[in-house]
Amino acid sequence: MVASRCHFSLDELRYQYPMESVLPGQTPAQTLRQYTWQGAGQRYPAGLPEAVRVQVEHELALIAELNYEMYFLTGHDIVAFARGQGILCQVSGSAANSAVCC
Questions:
Q1: Which DSSP string corresponds to the chain?
Q2: Start and end of every Bacterial DNA polymerase III alpha subunit NTPase domain (predicted)?
Q3: Count: domains in the chain
């Protein structure tokens, strides 16, 4: 029987994100860090509050530890495309309440 010969484990699943989201000559972590600090500068033009800086650094470290940079960069690309097309968008999911978000 075919089913008895099929072996599958959820541990085998891996996401494969497109590397087009990464800036030339940079790693995903470097690109995410650059976009994050650019966004923070736009959000806080008078200067970044210390509590926000600490939170951003904490989140960037956690994202790097979990190797989730490409998840955030893919979200960044989707949001940038939508905004460029005049499409209203909202980020949802676990990144929505993050200081490091799209």
A1: -HHHH----GGG------GGGSPTT--HHHHHHHHHHHHHHHH-TT---HHHHHHHHHHHHHHHHHT-HHHHHHHHHHHHHHHHTT------STTTT-SS--
A2: 30-101
A3: 1
